[in-house]
Amino acid sequence: MERIGLIGAGRAGTALGAALAAAGHPLVGVTARSGVSRERAARLLPHVPVLTAGEVATRADVVLVAVPDDVIEDVVEQLPLTSSQYVVHLSGAHGLRPLRGSDAIPVALHPAMTFSGGPVRLEDVMFTATAPDQARELVERLVKALGAQVQWVADKQRAQYHAGLVHGANHLTTLVTQALAVLREAGVQDPAATLRPLVTATLDNTLRSGHHALTGPIARGDVDTVAAHLAGLQDRTASTYAELARATVELAAADGRLDPDTAARFQKVLNGEPGERYRTGEAPR
Fold first, then answer.
1. Among 60, 64, 76, 187, which lies 20 to 30 A Cα-Cα from 1?
2. Other C-beta atoms lying within 10 Å of the C-beta of residue 129
3. Are 8 and 90 found together in one domain?
4. pTM value?
5. C-alpha angle 108/111/84, rounded to 5°?
6. Interval 77-117: pLDDT, tens
7. Taking CA 114 as the corner, what is the angle to CA 189 and CA 88, rounded to the nearest 5 degrees?
């Protein structure tokens, strides 16, 4: 099996390094500059020596560069790599461009997973790869050893791919955090317990059925309900609600659940236009 070297002891790098080691790939070294990084490396990679970047690079067949996106290119340019090695970064947003300063075979390999700083189960996680043809066999073998899956995207599509992940995952955290605050302000004693079954079921249904999983006041055409929501929300949360509601109206109108007149009335309410109350003939629920 290929010898693996790890540049950087952040959450993703150490978790992936530990998983590769558990799958039988020898880890020849890791770099760890800060005290936090050294502690993490000692905890997750207890038998892996902490070395300089140059030492790691010269000992490895595959060098994993697990550093922040903005410094990948600078770090890689300083590594003493040869054409017989592979250099792999873990960024979702970047393709092969940050690796162009190296003689090694370049690979962009991103696990669609969140890392908390401890061991992570990677079984069934989807890794998204961009690489030249001569690296495909290696990538598929490494990912398979982890029990994970791999898919391939073109270099020019990396930023778009990553935007989809961020919008669906990172922004979900923002959305749920705002919702918890609104429930708390409404006097709900346990906002998380209240929201958890609904969010969990909605997420599962949406992943299975896409836009067909949409329920709620917009899908029902309850314009007054949405107007009442906006009146009760504050500042940034009201802005977030309105923007997402506009997109939801467009979604519901596109698949025929909202007629053009109701969609237009929703847009007037969401744009804050003064005028009549828009009644739908049923009580808000």
1. 76
2. 19
3. yes
4. 0.88
5. 35
6. 999 999 999 999 999 999 999 999 999 999 999 999 999 88
7. 170
31, 147: one domain: yes
Pick the closest to residue 122 from 132, 131, 112, 130 (CA basis): 112
Of 62, 116, 117, 113, nearest to 92 by C-alpha is 113
167 in the same domain as 109? no
39 inside domain: yes
Cα gap 124→178, rounded to integer Å? 30
Amino acid at 57: A
Instruction: Tell me the chain's radius of gyration from C-alpha atoms.
Output: 24
Let me know if residue 183 belongs to a domain: yes
Which among 59, 60, 68 is positioned nearest to 8, based on CA atoms? 68
Rounded CA-CA distance 41/47 in Å is 9
The verdict on residue 22 lying in a domain is: yes
What total of structural domains would you count in the chain? 2
User: pLDDT tens, 216-255?
Assistant: 999 999 999 999 999 999 788 999 999 999 999 999 999 9
Secondary structure (DSSP) of 99-131: GTT-SSEEEEEEE-----SS----TTPEEEEE-
Please give the Cα distance from 21 to 4 (Å, whole number): 9
Q: Is 257 in the same domain as 201?
A: yes
